[in-house]
Amino acid sequence: MPIDTTAAGPDPAAALLHSAFYRFTPLSDPPAAAALVRGLAQGLFGSITVAAEGINGAVSGTPAAVRAFEAALQGDAVFGGALRGMVFKHSGCVTPPFARLKVLVKPEIVALGLPGAEALPPPDEADASHLSPAAWRELLARDDVVLLDNRNHFEFRLGHFRGAADPQVRHFRDFVAYVQQQAPAWREAGRPVAMYCTGGVRCDKTAPWLRSLGLDVMQLEGGILNYLQQVDGPGRDWLGDCFVFDKRIALDAALHETPATAEDVFDESDPGEAWRLARARRLDAF
């Protein structure tokens, strides 16, 4: 299958740039790190989490302001250059995605409650299990791989890769239970697990746990957003839209906003989604 890595075209109506990023790196003083990041992000809107294990966030603003922030974040003066080379996933914004800037200090940059997490090795963003978007597209043609969606059920319902398994996640414990139930059969059949999520951080966090179950794990580098940003013609492999956790709601395969509303995404009759719909309505009121 020929690979074309032309980037997705910009939305001509988009005036703002959205940038999503993360990096697992030890931070000895998360509150001080958060204060430094907060200063660098002045003039932008977004949500950034800082923890002892690293940084995870998304910001929006004018393209010039966002790129200046990205450059500053990777500079030697910030955490000794530990964020140098960090991947930024970009998409345009017609709808301002955030109402304000939040920089929070939390115990983890993504909290998943994995069993035995304290004994697991730390995530490694640079290990050989990460597949480039081009290599991922080639992998999708194989029939010996378990293609695992590492997101919520409502996200899968809105859009997913062709042939992916939906673990029916309403709470993350559902993902854990699904993998524990299926792992013996996957091991016995010698089937590697290729998983993906929106931006890559959830897969990086869960990969060591899946390996602790004796599974051979691969993951999509940079997640769905990086895939759609890098690979042209993704409609042959990506079905539907990609949910994003901001006021834009969803992006199509060209990373353009769609007309989707919260009511289109969340099933009000599902207790696991009703509270998300209520929260989205509250946020939309501001």
Shape: globular
Q: Summarize the main sheet.
A: 5 strands, mixed
Strand element count = 13
User: At the fourth CATH level, what is the homologous superfamily of the largest domain?
Assistant: Rhodanese-like domain
Give me the side-by-side strand order of the main sheet: 4-1-3-2-5
**What structural class results from the helix and strand content?**
alpha/beta
Instruction: Provide the CATH top-level class of the largest domain.
Output: Alpha Beta
Could you tell me the strand content as a percent range? 15-25%
Tally of distinct domains: 2
Task: Assign a percent range to the helix content.
Answer: 25-40%
Number of helices: 9
- Based on CA atoms alone, the radius of gyration comes out at 19 Å
Q: Return residue spans where pLDDT drops below 50 for at least 5 consecutive residues.
A: 1-7
Q: Please trace the helix and strand order, writing H or E for each element.
A: EHEEHEEEHEHEHEHEHEEEHH
CATH architecture identity of the largest domain: 3-Layer(aba) Sandwich
Mean pLDDT: 91
How far apart, in Å, are the first and last alpha carbons? 47 Å
